[in-house]
């Protein structure tokens, strides 16, 4: 595996979840560029540094022994990767604070290093929350590989932080360096809301929630076919997003005991608020998790899932396949996994490798709803 070499450390890093013979590495040239730039600025043990959206902990693991470090992001998988990479490199005791993106990191910070996320709404909310958290003279430096770095990222830095200058490209990476100015406190456009007719719900969506402005078409295809079960059942909404599947199922099934999990802290925050609005104090377990990795074996009767098809910028079915495996482990014998997926992804064949029975519940020209029985 390639080693991340920077002025701060030489690190052997892995992605999470790990794949056998994974061709992808846990860092890129934008991480290297950020670390080299920060070293040139001169930082010491008293420098207060905030890292945002550090996918697998490359930046935080490099900096933790050298500065007063806070890391914040919206990925629970990213947090697990950070912990594993710290341990892997003998840095488990390195002092750092991790803050989920659903909370505001507390400064003041002298330096902020930002990996520009795929969702620019998340970047905007993070920059808004930096108001009042920057030390005088602070710099906010955003980075990305040029092919993933939209012009709008620089516009957001200028709008919320101060004058911005783009660096030269190095190894197809670029930095956007903004100098903090005194500005009036900005108003955040997040969370956003949209309304459903069936079931009648108004859904809150924090900045990094998938399909924040309206119900995604896969879930729209799934909702009319949710099972109605006339006895107590233990069910999970796996990759719950704003919680709409789990909440709709709970409304249909008053005796059901629900668990909602997602790797996005902002999704979990949205799901918690939406559950409370729709179902009040009805008991539920809503948590950030690595899928159903934290779920006891043979503890669920039913799993609902609208699986993702990407992790950050990487498209593929690895995460979906892993979620199907986790669901099988968590289900009792005879338990069911219900999913919706694009027809072309061929989930029917994949599920047949794990489950004894797979049925098509519904289909339209784009999506299929499948039921797999353990």
Overall average residue pLDDT:
93
Envelope shape: globular
Low-confidence stretches: 310-315
- Strand ordering within the main sheet: 5-4-3-6-7-9-8
Main sheet attributes: strand count, strand direction, barrel closure: 7 strands, mixed
Distance from first to last alpha carbon = 37 Å
Q: What is the fourth-level CATH superfamily of the largest domain? A: Vaccinia Virus protein VP39
Estimate the strand proportion.
Answer: 25-35%
- Listing every helix as H and every strand as E from the N terminus to the C terminus, the arrangement reads EEHEHEHEEHEHEEEEHEHEHEEEEHEHEE
Summarize the amount of helix as a percent range. 25-40%
What this model shows, in words?
By secondary structure, the protein is α/β, with parallel strands linked by helices. It has two domains: 3-179, Rossmann fold, CATH 3.40.50.150; 192-373, Vaccinia Virus protein VP39 (Rossmann fold). Strand 13 (257-262), helix 8 and strand 14 (285-288) form a beta-alpha-beta unit. Helix 4 packs parallel to helix 5 (151-160) and helix 7 (244-252) runs parallel beside helix 8. The strands form five sheets. It has a seven-stranded mixed sheet with strand order 5-4-3-6-7-9-8, sandwiched between helices. It is built from ten helices and 20 strands. It is 27% helix and 30% strand.
SSE blueprint and pairings:
Elements: E1 3-5, E2 10-12, H1 29-41, E3 48-52, H2 58-63, E4 68-73, H3 76-88, E5 96-100, E6 109-115, H4 120-129, E7 134-145, H5 151-160, E8 164-166, E9 173-179, E10 192-196, E11 201-205, H6 217-222, E12 234-238, H7 244-252, E13 257-262, H8 265-279, E14 285-288, E15 300-305, E16 310-311, E17 314-315, H9 318-330, E18 331-342, H10 347-352, E19 357-363, E20 367-373
Helix pairs in contact: 4-5, 7-8
EC number: 2.1.1.174
Function: Specifically methylates the guanine in position 1835 (m2G1835) of 23S rRNA.
Family: Belongs to the methyltransferase superfamily. RlmG family.
């Amino acid at each position: 595996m390639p080693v991340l070499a920077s002025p701060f450390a030489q690190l052997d890093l892995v992605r999470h979840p790990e794949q056998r013979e994974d061709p992808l590495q846990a860092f890129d040239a934008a991480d290297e560029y950020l670390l080299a730039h920060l070293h040139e600025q001169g930082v010491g043990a008293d420098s207060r540094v905030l890292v945002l959206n550090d996918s697998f902990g490359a930046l935080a693991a490099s900096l933790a022994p050298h500065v007063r470090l806070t890391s914040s992001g919206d990925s629970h998988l990213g947090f697990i990767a950070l912990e594993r990479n710290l341990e892997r490199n003998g840095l488990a005791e390195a002092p750092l604070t991790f803050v989920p993106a659903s909370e505001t990191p507390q400064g003041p910070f002298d330096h902020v290093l930002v990996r520009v996320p795929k969702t620019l709404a998340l970047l905007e909310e993070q920059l808004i929350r930096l108001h009042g958290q920057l030390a005088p003279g602070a710099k906010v430096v955003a980075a990305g590989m040029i092919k993933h770095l939209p012009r709008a990222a620089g516009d957001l830095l200028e709008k919320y932080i101060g004058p911005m200058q783009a660096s030269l490209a190095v190894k197809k990476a670029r930095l956007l360096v903004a100098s903090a100015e005194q500005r009036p406190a900005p108003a955040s456009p997040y969370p956003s809301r949209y309304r459903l007719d069936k079931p009648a719900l108004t859904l809150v969506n924090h900045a990094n929630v998938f399909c924040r402005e309206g119900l995604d078409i896969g879930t729209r295809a799934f909702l009319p076919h949710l099972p109605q079960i006339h006895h107590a059942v233990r069910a999970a909404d796996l990759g719950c997003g704003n919680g709409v599947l789990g909440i709709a199922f709970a409304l249909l099934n008053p005796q059901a005991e629900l668990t909602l999990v997602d790797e996005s802290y902002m999704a979990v925050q949205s799901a918690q608020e939406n559950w409370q609005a729709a179902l009040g104090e009805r008991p539920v377990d809503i948590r950030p998790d690595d899928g159903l990795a934290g779920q006891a074996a043979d503890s669920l009767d039913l799993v609902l899932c609208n699986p993702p098809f990407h992790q950050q910028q990487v498209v593929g079915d690895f995460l979906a396949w892993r979620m199907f495996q986790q669901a099988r482990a968590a289900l009792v014998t005879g338990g069911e996994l219900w999913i919706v997926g694009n027809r072309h992804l061929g989930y029917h064949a994949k599920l047949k490798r794990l489950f004894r029975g797979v049925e098509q519940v519904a289909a339209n020209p784009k999506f299929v709803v499948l039921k797999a029985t353990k």
